Amino acid sequence: MIMSIFNDNIAAFGMDLSDRSVKVAQLGKKNGKVHLLSFARKDIPKGWIEDGEIKKEDEVIDLVKKTMREAKPRSISSKYVVYSIPETKGFIRVIKIPKIEGDNLEEAVKYEAEQLFPIDISESYIDWQVLSGEDGKVLEVLVAAVPMKLVDSYSSMLRKAGLMPITAEIESIAISRSLINDRQSARPILIIDLGKDRTSFIIYKNPTVQFTASIPVCGNEFNKAISETLNMSDNDAEVLKRKCGLSAKGECKDLYRAIQPSLHEMIKYINKLSDYYKEHYKEESDIAKVIICGGEARILGISSFLSLRIKKEVEKGNPWVNIVLSSEKEIPPISRNDSLIFVTVLGLAIRGISES
Predict the structure, then answer these.
(1) pLDDT digits 0-9 by tens, 339-355
(2) Taking a C-beta distance cutoff of 8 angstroms, is the pair 298, 343 a contact?
């Protein structure tokens, strides 16, 4: 397989495959307007995929086919697929190197990647994109690396499902494509993907992702704290969390007290990340605003909670900003709240339709 992370590709649908779920989305064009043709999400039983590694390939293949077949309002029609690489398995950074060309540039990028990324570069797919040159002497280069074994296993599974994988893309690239457009701030933006198993942080500065990081503070940790403090099951903790959100009043105050340590840990990390970015990216380095997405971003009150504590504008992501609906009055087929869990796959689908 040829590993491509940045180049445009032919029309395809997007597939976001994780340990917990498979999501698909396909876009189409009509009269110059982009429409969501199909979308679906199905849970993946525990143990089928673990830490990105496919353990039960036949079962995953059957579920992928079923998800495509039962997509709404119509089945997925394309056999070409752009799929995601788990954020924790991919590595991405913007580097600066002396201005060089040809094979020397490739060697310089690989050398820097060896210093930056905690994986064996000889067993990884490397891709890069030159962003700009400074004063004609220095190049800014976006570099990404993913393990060959992981990419090849996903591609093999998809081929066995009758599909043609054309691009593997690290989640942060798809997320930023989905949520950010040219009308937003030219200053850096922090995207926080609040998931069930982890929280990922993406710092984006036009025109691309600068770097990413992840921490284990997540929905599972919230539920565990609630269940242990209030002596209830994980399922009941999830239901109560959705009902109460981050309210500290009435029957919800005990829940808020239970997850408060995890929330404070997240705040500490955000401030640490902001300080790191200021230190290493001197010019216009202050983060302008924060965009949140992911399933845990649906928790009531989390936007205002974060905004008050990090003293920055915080908004819930809108994956429709780069999808031109047929009219300004058209209501997206996925609700604003539910679309927070479809951000990655819609970003993949945008890439899939970029070259019809």
Answers:
(1) 999 999 999 999 998 74
(2) no
H or E element in which residue 315 lies: strand 313-316
Question: Any idea of the CA torsion for 170, 173, 178, 179, to the nearest 10 degrees?
Answer: 130
Amino acid present at 4? S
Report strand pairing: 21-30 vs 49-50.
unpaired
Same domain, 43 and 163: yes
Q: What is the pLDDT of residues 268-316, one digit of tens each?
A: 999 999 888 888 776 556 888 999 999 999 999 999 999 999 999 999 9
Is 9 in the same domain as 70?
yes
What is the C-alpha radius of gyration for the chain, rounded to an integer number of angstroms?
Answer: 21
What is the extent of the structural domain holding 42? 1-89+148-180+322-356
- Give the whole-angstrom CA distance, residue 339 versus residue 186: 25
**Quick one: which of 324, 316, 315 has its CA closest to 341?**
316
The answer on 31 and 173 residing in a single domain is yes
Is 170 in the same domain as 226?
A: no
Are 68 and 197 members of one domain? Answer: no
